Amino acid sequence: MPITGPRFLLLLSLSAILWSVGCRHGGRDAAKEPRGARKAPVESVEARLKEIDHIGPTAAKDRAARANLGRSLYDPRGPVRDQAAHWLSKAGAEAVPILITALEDTNTEISVTAAYALGRMGEVAAPAVPNLTRLLGGNIDTLANMSNWALSQVGPRGKGGFIPLLRNLRYGNAYDRAGAARQFSLYGDASAVAIPLLARTLEDPNPIAAQAAADALVRIGPRASLAVQAMLSSPKPPARLRAVLVLSQMRTPYF
Fold first, then answer.
1. Beta carbons of 162 and 173 less than 8 angstroms apart
2. How many CB atoms are located within 10 Å of the residue 50 CB?
3. Rg of the chain over CA atoms, in angstroms?
């Protein structure tokens, strides 16, 4: 039996409403892009490299050229990032802030490229020393290694502060690692730059170094609690036990 009259009009109205809502919802979803999403490049690698080599020599004096090269540091293609970093490393002090921003990117490949460019700049890159020092004390080995190299290239400022202790804690023998951790414990909260590396040292195969790291983390206090909590999932039982003991002495819940 065909639907007619008021009932037909009611169904027609409901259908129109549902269709309208669906269109609006779908339109919003189609227009929405993930925050921080980077669009795939349109031009070829060869074309982009040619453009970079054209503007690269002008970057030292041309702010627009530096900005263009800076955007290329975030290109998903390695050769493009590397060539942009090459020219920025030759652009002088004005390019350092651009490279520092890239150094802090969550993409490790971008950060490593920026660290390498800063190292090539030598003493001009001295303003980046605090950032490179923090990464030397971080958990990402490839980035820490490149930051260590860059610090070795920037002159006297790359050798002071906590840098020697961080190097001993990361690269030293068991005696050096334990000694560096003990030194950090003396500085207390000021040792925050070493928190990620100290937390990882709870897994150190040398129990003396591991215990020295635990003592340093206790001295640093609650500021280190998140890094220590992450060690509760360590595959090494002694490290998990040390993490529990450190959190207990911090009076921080660990469950």
1. no
2. 12
3. 27
Domains (ranges, CATH) in the chain? Answer: 45-160 (1.25.10.10), 163-255 (1.25.10.10)
Q: If we measure between CA atoms, which residue out of 179, 243, 175, 230 comes closest to residue 206?
A: 175
Tell how far CA 152 is from the center of its chain. Answer: 20
* pTM greater than the 0.85 cutoff: no
CA 236 to CA 21: how far, in whole Å? 54
181 closest CA partner among 217, 128, 135: 217
Q: What's the angle, vertex CA 151, arms to CA 147 and CA 157, rounded to 5?
A: 145
CA distance 119 to 82: 14
- pLDDT value at position 132? 97
As a whole number, the mean pLDDT across the chain is 87
CB atoms < 10 A from the CB of 200, how many?
Answer: 21
Distance CA 191, CA 195 (A): 7
**Both structure tokens of 226:** 């998140």
Q: What is the model's pLDDT at position 5?
A: 54
Mean pLDDT along residues 149-178: 94
For 6-21, the DSSP string reads: HHHHHHHHHHHHHHHH
Q: Are 199 and 188 in contact (CB under 8 A)?
A: no
